[in-house]
## 1
Amino acid sequence: MVLRMTARKSFATFTFSADVTIRDDRFGIFGVSGSGKSTLVGMLAGLLEPDTGEIMLDDDCLFSSAKRINLRPEQRRVAIVFQQHCLFPHLSVMNNLLYGFKRCPPEHRSIDFDTLVSVLKLEGLLGRGVTNLSGGEKQRVALGRAILANPRLLLMDEPMSALDDALRFQIIPYLKSVSEQFRIPYLFISHSLVEMRLMAEQVLVMSGGAVVEQTSTDQLARSRMGHSPVGYINLLRLSRPRLDNGLFSYAWGAGELLISAGSDQQEAIFELSSKDIILCKMHPEAISARNLLKCSVVSTFESGNKVGVELASGEGRLVAEVVPQAVEELRIAAGSELYAAIKASAFRRIG
Amino acid sequence: MPLNYDARQSMITLSPTDFDAIRLSVQVAIAATLLSLPFGLAVAYLITFVKFRGKLLLEVVVNLPLTMPPVVVGYLLLLLLGKHGWLGSLLSAAGIRLIFTLKAAVIASALVGFPLLVRSLRTGMEAIDPQLINASRTLGARWYDTLFTVILPLSVPGLVAGSSLMFARSLGEFGATIIVAGNIPGVTQTIPLAIYEYASSPTSGDMALSLCLVSVALSIVVLFLHEMMAKKMARRD
């Protein structure tokens, strides 16, 4: 998918302006609330008209002020998964799912209803009304409804922000697998960097109504490390746990990681803050931290008044943060060898 | 109208003319409500969802009968629909006479009750989450498709509440009706007009009271229905 957008629109309190080209099927739009993300979504979907500009999706013009083109929302085939599920309260789960499908011209219908229902695990819910579903179920139905409309672009507008933490990361595999399985390009809009990194590799950063940066999600996380109270969040996808004296042991890098908050699930995602990694020049004889990993330094980078240290252990990569004085004392540079000490309780399971 | 109890023995005494008045009242109220519904829906939709110039003017015009004396509404209607009126002369050329018929009573009631209907419908429509409408549009529905599949179904509580209020108001319509439809027993004489006639005669106090009781009972039933719907509407979010 290639999305080209130049647009300006003035509001009472701020001006929205964007001039971007997106060439990736999974792309993120990142920014705090009020930065213009929802305005961008509205313009792409045809719910909001730019004052001037042009929006091209592949070879089709969705909007052009010069050519006086403004396709109506129903002509664009751009579906939205909203922040609030926005399911039709008077329709059953089944009829909600089929709402867009029935209105999609037959030549564009490529998604099989039964396959989608089974991917989203909605089999038992079809005959029910939508008001008594749980938050996660509602969002899964909303996702299914958008996919079944056979859109050529799916806008996920903070689809997890109304869900609590536990549910939030349960829905991510659905969002990803559905879009991948049915080959629907998406823009993932969020103000959460962790969600963003799980959903997209490239990202547009918005601030004050304008696109200020186009970068990779990992680069964005690194540049924000020094300014964020939680540092850089390492995301570790670990599998096949083994129980070891009450802790969960997962193979990682050249060795293994011992984690208190593990689970019996075959695969899990863990967060580990760059602040929770202690670096030692030499092997400490005895230490309470359960993980002591021999690593080599891949690179270092500055962020705010901190220095990020990218560590490698086998195939595994971790980012730790230290203050500049520590870099000097430990003589940390690319290629140097270090020990990283991590407490078993420092890992947080998010999915 | 057949009676399955001896009305003359009971507290409420109703003559055949009274039964005619009740029947006519209900007929007028139902017809006026049904006649107003499509217009009410259109106006409520325009005011709630469509941006256009002169919206304020439309709101004022729609609400005018609420504040104007019904007699004034009736008199203006008489000027419009009378034999020499702007519309009346056209209609009489086509062989249609409205003044002093039940049709005129229906039109008078429809006009006077219209603002109440529109208000309830608007409250119902304004309670619909705009994102639901956006969702429907992005899922491929045209505006009229959205109107019939999302807006109207979600407006049902407002529609029932508005219709019941309008029905109740029409049952009691007096001022405009007496001017355009007259007070002809069995033809245009509704409950309020019959009560007025009884009240004007010194010997018919009991008869007036009986019809008053019928009128109160009808209003209570309709308003109960209205309140139930209003509560249902408030609960939905």
Note: Chain A has a mean pLDDT of 93.
## 2
Amino acid sequence: MKRRKDDFDVIAELPGLKRYALVLTRDAAEAEDLLQDTLLKAYEGRRKWQPDRALRPWLFAIMHNAHVSRLRGRRAEDARIVQATQFAPQSGAPVQDARVQLAQVQRAMLGLPEEQREALLLVAVEEFRYQEAATILDIPIGTLMSRLGRARAALREAAGSAADETATDHTGPGGPASPRLRLVE
Amino acid sequence: MTHPPLTEAEIQAYIDGELDLPRRIEVEAYLEANPPVAAQVMADLRMRDALRLAFAEDGGVRVASYENARMLGRAVRWRRLTVRLRRVAAVVLLVGLGWGAQSVLGVTRIDPAAATIPAYADEAGDAYRTVLYRHLVDPAEPKGGMPADALAEAPITLPDLPEGWSIRSIEVVPWDGGSGFEATIDTDRFGLVTLFAAASDGFDVQQPQAQRAKDVTVAYWQVGPAVYALCAEAPAADLLGAANTLAETLY
């Protein structure tokens, strides 16, 4: 039987899911375990999936929940050392400035608290809409946005020591105004 | 030239493409007039793009994950198909009536001595007797059924058929585990046979086995979540050989 290219192609979602797993676990082997776990949980829960729902957010939400329940199982391992270099791009000449910068941004991102780095990955890398990402993480949109804001501020700060300090005076233009959310849809 | 001050949240929504066009223009006008904030936005955009590029490298996915993903994809497509089929209630009802006929006719069930036969194989045997009965009453039956391309949507792979076998009809049939497909096939060796295929809840690989009950033989096997049952009026050894040939084409 021929293989159909359609919206329900789980294999096409594997790279994105693997990225999410890496950002959550910060460990290549753990990430692969989490990916397996997610696929099996999705298979077990396949009857709960409604065909008119998008597959992608559903899978990411399962991974989020799988990760949370795995964490609950072993809080002791909290102090995991960030080994971002383990899966940061390394091939090619390390002298290449652009590649070094990429690795630096990625390492800074992986150094963020979990709730910030997963929010940033879902929105900035995986390009989920705010509403989708908030649903995946099971948090209000406002919470998602403040996590994103803190994540970006931290990344800017990490990059800031090297770059010009042009923007630091203006992180809150108009002062600490209460965030007015004007979202599309 | 006064623009209302923007909040951090709005700038962020701009970066993430959450704003509608009129609001984007407002934000861009504001940024144009406030280079330091614009520089901050560019820094955020640069970091976003850097992250995308950094993470674009394949982290490496184990073969097992691909297999699991393929299995899940099939399950998901199967689910979509069955939900769609449930909406076509009339079709299922008609098939259900045909299915129920065997109990009215008092057709004998598979020999209780062979109690180990899986439910799907047992049901497939009963369904085969129904097909034989319909064929006896009207030699043109069974005919029609669903178009062959509809099967392309199903997560079930049908085995390649040997020379001299041609599909006469394919129908959706209910069984304990949901819905399955029953193909009625004309064969040169065994006459009219049926091949039942369905997605089960289990996951197993079982080589074909044959069970004979009265005049009907059922050869059944499982590949992953898919179960198959080939039914014919034939000696068990002969049908088992045919089932092995079919099963081999599934790998």
Note: Confidence is low (pLDDT under 50) at residues 1-7, 76-95, 164-185 of chain A.
